[in-house]
Write a structure and sequence with these properties.
about 200 residues; mainly alpha; two-stranded antiparallel ribbon; 7 helices; 2 strands; elongated
Amino acid sequence: MPANFWDETSGQVRAKEFTAFLGLAEAQAARIAARPEKPDGYALEFPKEFKPEIPLTFDDKDPRLAELRNFAHEQGWDQGTFSKVLQIEAARHIAEHKAMTAAIAARDKALGPNAAARITAAQTWLESVLGKDRGAAVIDRMVLHTDVEALEDLQKAFTTQGAASFNNNGRDRQVPQTEEIPGYDNMSFEQRRAAQWNRANGQNR
């Protein structure tokens, strides 16, 4: 008999502690008996009472799920415990989604009634510089109105850089209108810059 269950003074088993131990052991044995035969036997499902606020799906090929299944099997989890863990992770995703949605709503409100048009214009320009995929990826990360405004300022700087110089009075020369440059719409970003520079400095007239 383990010492923690034996009372040396009375010479008897500590019934309360021993009974509690047996209860835990039986519960653990029941969980192990209820676990799937193999790790991949755990179903990717939430507890029945859990109703996600947004649609959620599982990718059965996600290696993290395989790792979780292996861990659950090693620990003797039953399906109910496994599903509860999935619920906890889902709740985290839902909270992140809500925070992102709120941030985007605040951004659009700060940008004003033309928010959608401003964001589309910024994305169109950015994709012309970085390419469609990378440009879209940058836009997706812009959750503050200051992000969009900074990109608009950057666009202006890139568009006007090198296209105007200073006269003797220190005042900017007028930036040439891009529609005056033949073939402008079909040029690459670098070609547009060069054409603007040439036009501003009196070349290719």
